[in-house]
Amino acid sequence: MALKVLNVSKYYGTLKVLDGVTFSVDEGEFLCIIGESGCGKTTILKIIAGIEKADSGEIVFDSGGRIGFVFQDDRLLPWKTVYENVMFAVKATGFEVNTPAVRETIELVGLSGFEGYYPKQLSGGMRQKAGIARALAVQPDLLLMDEPFASLDARTRERMQEELLKIVKGKTVVFVTHSIDEALFLADRIVVFSPRPARVVRTVEVDLPKPRDRTSQDFAELRVELYRSLE
Amino acid sequence: MRLKSAAFFIFLWYVVAFFTELPHPHEVAEKFFYLLFTPEPVLGKTLLEHAWASLLRVIFASSVAFSIAIPLAILTGWNRNVGEILMPAIEAIRPIPPLAWIPLAYIIFAPFPNTVQISQIFIVFVGSFFPCLISVFDYARNVPEEFLEMAKVFRANDLLILKEIVVPHSLQGIMTGIRIGLGVGWMSIIAAEMIATSGEGLGYFIMTMYQVGGRVAEIVAGMAMIGIVGYLMNSVLLRAERLVMPWR
Ligand SMILES: Nc1ncnc2c1ncn2[C@@H]1O[C@H](COP(=O)(O)OP(=O)(O)OP(=O)(O)O)[C@@H](O)[C@H]1O
Ligand SMILES: [Mg+2]
Q1: Which of B154, B155, B157, B241 to mutate to test the interface with A (most CBs of A within 10 A)?
Q2: B115 burial type by CB count under 10 A (0-12 exposed, 13-18 middle, 19+ buried)
């Protein structure tokens, strides 16, 4: 087990956002959190990342606690090139500045040739890739992804999902989304949050082999099941 | 467009000159180009030399002002505690026009042999310091929360955040601050030179031309020089912004 979230509750002022959230993530597992807008998905990621405090409950890392974060918006620094943005995270983490490793990460996400581009010169999909490269460059024990593809068009989004699975193969990932199809395509396991205040209402194992066929019968059946559980 | 605007301006000038003491544009232009390289007899200096003298004072005084204002603004903008102590005091001093400092400057700098020179530098310092400070402060204080959160997620320390987020984000404010500061400094030096004898400088030149008997063409030629230098400083700095911030 890589991470345990134990009975975590959180208020913003008097607004109860998380209500005893409990789930765990296995080593090398791709876990999706799904839930409606405003239910507290970003909040739980921030608490796991340690930039927001829980009012009660516990976060336990069984292996190392180094975190890579991919944001809902890209959060690239506009005055830095792709390469410099990735390098920022490397320096922040306190790693040696290692140019070949950074270039390799950029290549991994498919941005080689664009190292010297500023965020403004990139498409939305490329910006998210740069954000993924930045998160991977710190060699995270745990990769947290907060609806990284929400702003992309449907086709780009599907392509990014396919590429993501190749890129993060074997890594421990917690991926937030409110798209059932996205969760079904990516996840080994899906955790369903209730509307705010969030509780875990269901956990669904997705046993289909990857890469998955979005048009298959099994896929369709699971989709129906998930829709029901979100009602 | 610019040509039209210039033509219109010159036309208007002729109209006004026709009814007033104002010299005609061609008289001023003639005087201007003559004095550009030929020393004017009363002070024995060319217009270019006067402009250069004023410009040097401004550049020196403003550089000192900027090298204090920029770090101070970034620090106070970034660290709210320091900002809260300093900014109200600064807001209170800021509205005092630079020229109002002259008498006080004379008294403070009286012990020095070149009181007038030092006072002039001080006036320019006051003039360029505050616009620069405020401009940089505004940016340093408003670094987007998202960037700071991103930095926190990756465990960046304060020095890295300062160097790679706060300063670059404030660069627009720094460039604007330098541009506005130099502009105000330029106005201040001309005014300061008019009040006290300084041997050279555009303000001193204009005032002298007035005192030796209302040499209107020389006066307006001097004013034109002030405008041209100010305009050039501004456009050079605007151009520099694109070089300094290639990501925009
Ligand atoms: N810093 C904050 N201060 C006060 N309230 C906040 C803060 N951040 C989030 N909230 C509130 O907490 C609730 C959950 O927010 P959160 O961002 O976790 O939702 P989400 O599930 O990520 O939504 P979405 O899918 O739209 O991104 C919202 O009602 C929001 O208004
Ligand atoms: Mg969110």
Answers
A1: B154
A2: middle
**DSSP H/E element including A16:** strand A15-25
How confident is the model over A8-36, as a mean pLDDT? Answer: 97
Cα(B94)–Cα(B78) distance, rounded to whole angstroms?
A: 20
Option in A79, A93, A119 nearest B154 (CB): A93
Task: Report domain extents, chain B.
Answer: 24-244
CB-CB under 8 Å, B247 with A118: yes
Mutate to test the interface with B, among A43, A48, A80, A88 (most CBs of B within 10 A): A88
Burial (0-12, 13-18, 19+ Cβ within 10 Å), A34: buried
Q: For the domain bounded by B24-244, which CATH number is listed?
A: 1.10.3720.10
B residues 163-192 closer than 8 Å to A (CB): 164-165, 168-169, 171
User: What is the secondary structure of B155-216 as a DSSP string?
Assistant: T--HHHHIIIIIHHHHHHHHHHHHHHHHHHHHHHHHHHHHHS--SSSHHHHHHHHHHTT--H
B contacts of A93 (beta carbons < 8 Å) = 154-155
> Hey, what are A9's tokens?
């509750």
pLDDT higher than 80, residue A63: no
CA-based R_g, chain A, Å: 17
The structure tokens listed for B59 are 């550049």
CB A183 within 8 A of CB A34: yes
Do A185 and A5 meet the contact criterion of CB atoms below 8 Å apart?
Answer: no
Reduced to 3 states (helix: H, G, I; strand: E, B; else coil), residue A119 is helix
Cα B196 to Cα A221, B106, B193, B208, distances in angstroms: 90, 10, 6, 11
- pTM of structure: 0.90
Q: Which of B191, B208, B201, B164 is nearest to B42 (CA)?
A: B208
| Shortest Cα–Cα distance, A222 to chain B (Å) | 34
Mean pLDDT computed over B52-71? 97
Q: What is the least distance, in Å, from the CA of B70 to any CA of chain A? A: 19
Q: What stretches of chain B show up as alpha helix (H) in DSSP?
A: 2-19, 25-37, 47-78, 80-93, 102-108, 115-141, 145-153, 158-161, 167-195, 202-211, 216-244
Tens digits of per-residue pLDDT, B71-101? 999 999 988 888 888 888 888 998 999 989 9
Q: Which ligand is nearest to the CA of A38?
A: 1
Contact A40, A16 (CB under 8 A): no
Q: Which residues of A touch B172 (CB under 8 A)?
A: none
